[in-house]
Amino acid sequence: MKCPGTPDDDTTFDGLLDIKNSASFITVSYNFIHDHAKVGLIGASDTDSAERRVTYAHNRYENVGSRLPFQRFGYTHVYNNYYNNITGSGINPRMGGHVLIENNFFENALNPVFSQSSILGQWDLRNNNARSSADNARFNIRWTACSGSTPCQKATDWTTTATFPIALPYTYTTYAPEVSRCIALNAAGSGKGLREAASVLNMCGGSPTNDVYQTENGAMGGGTVFENKNAGFNGAGYVNSSTNGGFAQIDNVDGRGGGAKTLRIRFALGVSTARAGRLVVNGVGTNITFNSTGTWATWVLQNVTVTLNNGAANTIRFESTGQDLANIDQVEVL
């Protein structure tokens, strides 16, 4: 939304949601923000140095120009949001501000995370859909070169510049980025019946990420190795089993009350025939078969019923027994 003929064509429609002066401890959640040039400031100027603390969660941004937010000083937490068609720039910490950016989904975006300021802002990136420069093309994320003499940095390789330095005073639930996208599409904005994440989670096919375990974070041996060369995985990568005697083990799995539970296993198998191995849960082994997914970059979900103990003392282990298994990305406890 612009106002042609005014300075920058946007004088009338400058800040859609600005937070200034001593305003702090603010949460912006479940909004559908769209078709606007400059969305939101935190801090009116480079001298507005109040230590503001602001949280953005479960918002949907579509066809927006910039300031998502434009943050000066302070601490901002940005999680479980969906960004589509950013036409100028996105999250923009300045004047030494820190922002924690986690479990968001970015696509069709120009400069989604950057800082240009006399004192650069810093970001801590965790578990967003884009995790490396290789993901830029995959999600149509584009970057322009820094210009001018003001210090500038951009998250072109999706690496953290500084660990978020404060403890958050609240508990919260994160979801896999693709689930965050689905939640925002189905719950954010007017006309959605004041839905929240729990109301739409079933249709989004996910659960909180604290019940999702990335196999690459567990133990492995016997020739089973970590890899990240085939696209489409979640987390940092996946495990590729050896033909025989290999294992990948996840410890400290929460049994969510114990009893019969469903393990949702995400895997890829780019050969034409199925492969079998062993699934061992708390020392009890059963045979498991993975069917072909067509390519090594095609990931599918397979549900297996198991018995778990109450508490976080469960162990899940995949063993190869002569057929090399599939590439296993993650395990989710439902």
Q: The CATH topology of the largest domain is what?
A: Pectate Lyase C-like
Regions with little confidence, pLDDT below 50 for 5+ residues: none
**Category by helix and strand content:** mainly beta
Main beta-sheet annotation: 6 strands, antiparallel
- The number of helical runs is 3
| Number of strand elements | 26
Please, what is the average pLDDT?
92
Number of domains: 2
> CATH homologous superfamily of the largest domain?
Single-stranded right-handed beta-helix, Pectin lyase-like
The helix/strand order is EEEEEEEEEEEEEHEEHHEEEEEEEEEEE
C-alpha end-to-end distance: 43 Å
Going by CATH, the architecture of the largest domain would be 3 Solenoid
Could you please describe the fold and organization of this structure?
The protein has 334 residues and is mostly beta strands. The protein has two domains: 7-183, Pectate Lyase C-like; 210-333, Jelly Rolls (Sandwich). It has three helices and 26 strands. It has helices spanning 134-138, 177-187, 197-204; strands spanning 26-29, 32-38, 41-42, 53-57, 60-66, 70-72, 75-79, 82-86, 92-94, 98-102, 105-110, 114-116, 122-126, 141-142, 152-154, 212-214, 219-221, 225-227, 238-240, 244-253, 259-268, 275-281, 284-290, 300-308, 314-321, 327-333. Strands 16, 18, 19, 21, 24 and 26 form a six-stranded antiparallel beta sheet that branches. Strands 1-4-7-10-13 form a five-stranded parallel beta sheet, with no helix packed on it. Strand 22 (275-281) and strand 23 (284-290) form a beta hairpin. The protein is elongated. The two termini are 43 Å apart. The mean pLDDT is 92.
